[in-house]
Amino acid sequence: MIKRYTRSIMGDIWTDENKYNTWLKVEILACEAMAQHGMIPKKAFKNIKEKAAFSVKRIEEIEAETKHDVIAFLTNVAEHVGPDSRYIHMGLTSSDILDTSMAYLLKKAGEIIIEDCKNLSSIIKKRAFEHRDTVMVGRSHGIHAEPITFGLKLAVWYDEMQRNRKRFERAVENISFGQFSGAVGTFANIPPEIEAYVCKKLALKPAPASTQIIQRDRYAEYFTTLAIMASSIEKIAIEIRHLQRTEVLEAEEYFSKGQKGSSAMPHKRNPIGSENLCGLARIIRSNAMAALENIPLWHERDISHSSVERIIAPDTTILIDYMLNRLTGLINKLVVYPKRMEENLHMLNGLIFSQQILLALAASGATREDAYEMVQRQAMRVWKEKKSFKELIKKDKGICAYLSKKKIEEIFDVNYHLKYVGIIFDRVFET
């Protein structure tokens, strides 16, 4: 009997038990369709449905001799069914079963991943609104640039994960195609109606055209989309790693009671979760490259793609499921230090307001070149002498010829940079 798959755990999808269970489901649906079309006796189909079963151990024993997994599977099923097993797989080729089953499994895996993306986005959104007005310094090239909020940083992550989810939803839609078109895709021994029936029952679509296989550009889209998602996860993880550096320490991973950071140094609290995610992203990207290289095959099919997919399908989906869940927990418990963010914001003694001085000078009549030179001259003194940028600006006669002391004070107001935070949040979260 077919065993119903009910648990939404990614690893269970890729067990041998579930793989053969899916193959059996597909074979029985094909028999059901053929019985309805008068291609096999209805009595034989009833017997097949009642008796069809398999043993993973027995399949492995047969495969050791046949060196062919589908034949081993069919032989074992036949041992349970008896003479009516001659109607199983009638007119089909192995890839009809393999590719239709793989589409079904990848779709099931995709549904879990999509749900993971929604959960992650929900947590990012919660933390974004929590820190919407938590001011920190924005950085470019790793150097202090201008003020932002930590909430804005999270809003960018949310927006990117929304794109990742939508991209992947399209990829899942494009992977959800089955086939029952025979040895070279011509339906020589089985009509298209059988394919249409089986695919409908599996919530798949019939491939408009196939060879002996579903074309692997569909697979490549699926796995490269997951590689983009993994890279986004790494982007977030590496930012957390930077924010946790001792010299920055604006945020850090939650460090649980009893946790140890180093076997040698008891003081260590390392961003191991983020580092782990960065490493796993490399695997998923390399798997995507393998999927791309599976697109070109000899004529209507060879099997150079098969060994690759036996690895990358379970490994990639299991890893991305793990990564999305780990990042969700990491962000949910991320420890944020607003006071440290404020301290770092003023680390450069006001240099982060240099652009506003430049723009005010240009608006007051100075050429951009002259304005830039005047501002940079005082900015370089701050770097060298560690003095207050605002005080140096106030004492610069050239600058004060264009700007009043009052105007200069107004320029050094952090709220100037944050006046459109609400609008950005409205656009990102559609509130």
Please outline the helices and strands:
Blueprint lengths: L9 H4 L2 H21 L5 H10 L4 H11 L2 H13 L12 H37 L4 E6 L2 E7 H26 L1 E2 L13 H10 L3 E2 L10 H28 L6 E2 L19 H22 L12 H27 L2 E2 L1 H8 L8 H10 L4 H18 L3 H7 L1 H4 L4 H7 L9 H9 L2
Parallel strand pairs: 3-4
Antiparallel strand pairs: 1-2, 5-6
Helix pairs in contact: 2-3, 2-6, 2-8, 4-5, 6-7, 6-11, 7-9, 7-18, 9-10, 9-11, 10-11, 13-14
The tally of beta strands, per DSSP, is 6
Average pLDDT number:
95
List low-pLDDT spans.
1-7
How many domains?
3
Structural class based on helices, strands and sheet pairing: mainly alpha
> Approximately what portion of the residues adopt beta-strand conformation?
under 5%
Morphology call: elongated
Give the name of the CATH architecture of the largest domain: Up-down Bundle
The helix content, as a percent range, equals: 55-70%
Summarize the structure.
The protein has helices at residues 10-13, 16-36, 42-51, 56-66, 69-81, 94-130, 150-175, 192-201, 217-244, 272-293, 306-332, 338-345, 354-363, 368-385, 389-395, 397-400, 405-411, 421-429; strands at 135-140, 143-149, 177-178, 205-206, 251-252, 335-336.
Can you walk me through this structure?
The chain folds into three domains: 10-90, Fumarase C, Chain B, domain 1 (Orthogonal Bundle), CATH 1.10.275.10; 102-176 and 215-256 and 268-343, Fumarase/aspartase (Central domain) (Fumarase C, Chain A, domain 2), CATH 1.20.200; 351-411, Fumarase/aspartase (C-terminal domain) (Ribonucleotide Reductase Protein R1, domain 1, Orthogonal Bundle), CATH 1.10.40.30. The chain contains 18 helices and six strands. The chain has helices spanning 10-13, 16-36, 42-51, 56-66, 69-81, 94-130, 150-175, 192-201, 217-244, 272-293, 306-332, 338-345, 354-363, 368-385, 389-395, 397-400, 405-411, 421-429; strands at 135-140, 143-149, 177-178, 205-206, 251-252, 335-336. The strands form three sheets. Strands 1-2 form a two-stranded antiparallel ribbon. Strands 3-4 form a two-stranded parallel sheet. Helix 2 crosses helix 6, helix 2 crosses helix 8 and helix 9 (217-244) runs antiparallel to helix 10. It is elongated.
